[in-house]
Amino acid sequence: MKSLETLFVLALIMALAISATSDSETNSMRGTSRFLGRVAMTSCEKYPKICHMKGSGGPDCCNNKCVNFSTDRFNCGRCGKKCSFGKMCCDGKCVNPRTNEKHCGKCGNKCDARGSCVYGMCSYA
Ligand SMILES: *[C@@H]1O[C@H](CO)[C@@H](O)[C@H](O)[C@H]1NC(C)=O
């Protein structure tokens, strides 16, 4: 009788120990994926390919960050090329969307031959 009780207690302890281990295992797994996420965010200098992964900030690596040179106004066309105030980055070029006939108001908004860009709108007057 006594040994059966001991066995039961032992089994209980083992069950607790197992659940405790699996708990800490899930925690460390979560920690690992968080760690991997951080690596993906910050080491494109080492691994430029990560910028081509879905959900990255863009295909280009600049100051260890994934950016899109074609639209990033702080890295327009190349790393570190900042567009001045009021300009935006379209196709890797800083443009003034209030007057640019190819990017009037927004990137890719072209005014046709008769129109001109006035305050960011194509005017045909
Ligand atoms: C970069 O931005 C342009 C304009 O929004 C977009 O067409 C292009 O798909 C982007 N590149 C990538 C790889 O996200």
Automatic annotation (TrEMBL):
Keywords carried by this UniProt record: Signal
Keyword field contains Signal: yes
Organism superkingdom: Eukaryota
Signal peptide extent: 1-19
Matches recorded under InterPro entries: Stig-like
Signal among keywords: yes
Transmembrane segments: none
Family: Belongs to the STIG1 family.
Protein name in UniProt: Stigma-specific STIG1-like protein 1
Organism per entry: Clitoria ternatea (Butterfly pea)
Native organism taxonomy: Eukaryota, Viridiplantae, Streptophyta, Embryophyta, Tracheophyta
